[in-house]
Amino acid sequence: MLERMSGRPRAERIVLLEGLRDWLAYQLRQTERTLAQLRAEEDEERRRLEAERIAGSWKLQPARVTGAQPMLHRADCRLYKTQLGYLDREHAAVALEEFPRLEMCQICAPWGSLGLPAPEG
């Protein structure tokens, strides 16, 4: 483009280049807005997927006293608020095998989501 402008008067080239600069600045702003929107959508999708993963998880509360059994909770249980150590279905089954007398939270009822009958008692 610059080669085609070489024969034009300097004042005209300045006007054309300023117009080009302004258009390129506009295009850059549009691109930055689009990138910001796509990044926000990506972050929201990541948060949504993490929330879904957690919603389908369980957590194991350690026994409070020696000789007691740990307690199984749904991941979103308000009674046991730790935000780490989520178990998937396979690991929840391992916990049930490891602790045959595993207690289950009466508030969040994790047995239902595991397809188990309600504990007696």
Automatic annotation (TrEMBL):
Family matches, as InterPro entries: DUF6233
Keyword set, alphabetical order: Coiled coil
Organism from which the protein derives: Streptomyces wuyuanensis
Listed name of the protein: Uncharacterized protein
Coiled coil segments of this chain: 28-55
